[in-house]
Amino acid sequence: MKRKILAAMAFLLAANTMTAQINTDDILDSLINDVQQGKEVENVEISLDQSTSMKHRLLVIGDDQLQGIGPRLYNYALATGYTIFTSIWMESTTKKWAFSSDLRQLIKKVQPTFIIVCLGTHDLAGGDIPTRTQAVKTIMDDIGDIPFVWMGPVEVKTISEDPGVVPMLRKTVGEDRFYDSYNLRLAREDEMHPTAEACQKWVDGFIAWLGSTETAHPIHFDTPKALLPFKNVETHKASYQGKKR
Predict the structure, then answer these.
(1) What is the DSSP secondary-structure string of 44-84?
(2) Res. 187: pLDDT tops 90
(3) How far lies 215's CA from each of 175, 212, 220, in Å?
(4) Are the CB atoms for 39 and 1 separated by under 8 Å?
(5) Among residues of the chain, what percentage have pLDDT more than 70?
(6) Are strands 83-89 and 234-236 parallel, antiparallel or unpaired?
(7) How much is the average pLDDT of 13-17?
(8) Residue 51: which region, alpha, beta or left (left: phi > 0; alpha: psi -120 to 50)?
(9) Mind listing the pLDDT tens digit for each residue in 52-100?
């Protein structure tokens, strides 16, 4: 079942003029509910004023790092008028996403115009770079022609050195689609995860890069003036095995 959802918001400054406002948060709740029920959504258009309309539907997939960076990404998207769908698979690796059909099914349901991948943290603990390279290529095949970027992993303090994951990601994905986070100096809440404040700084740098000419597909985001509660579409536990291909 496909739904076409149209909404308009007008901000009229003239005195004695009635202002028509529609709660975009309610619209997002409706969209998220559709995706969770397995419905497809299309042709979403939210006008924030007479000259601005939503241009992107974002799909963000990743491991548990997305719990930290998700809230800031979510608020950037909403501030700009974009719809955002996030899927968190705890402790997931490139191989887990590649060996399952989850990404393909999410793409079919969400029909995103732009995809952000946040994977690699849990690949740092393993070797077998050739297999992980193929996994990344499979993920890229699943994405197809949809514009995407890859948000690389930060350093894990308990791992003495990167076994080659970050260079592999950069080479496979492409320099202009890979945001290298590995050497960022971020305060930590543990050996693997940055603090909430550090996650905001991490995302701020990523968003600045994403809007620059250094990327294959520059995309503009407005800075959020208010922080709304993060609404994640789905979270899978580390024990989740993924949907079969």
Answers:
(1) EEEEEETTEE---EEEEEESTHHHHHHHHHHHHHHHHT-EE
(2) yes
(3) 8, 6, 12
(4) yes
(5) 78
(6) parallel
(7) 27
(8) alpha
(9) 344 899 999 999 999 999 999 999 999 999 999 999 999 999 999 999 9
Question: Are 159 and 124 spatial neighbours (Cβ–Cβ below 8 Å)?
Answer: yes
Assess whether pLDDT exceeds 90 at residue 27.
no
**What's the predicted TM-score (pTM) here?**
0.80
The dihedral through the CA atoms of 143, 184, 176, 159 has a sign that is negative
Tokens standing for 18?
Answer: 């009635």
Exposure of 108 by Cβ count < 10 A (0-12 exposed, 13-18 middle, 19+ buried)? Answer: exposed
Distance CA 67, CA 196 (A): 9
Q: How many residues does the chain have?
A: 245
For 193, the token pair is 């995860």
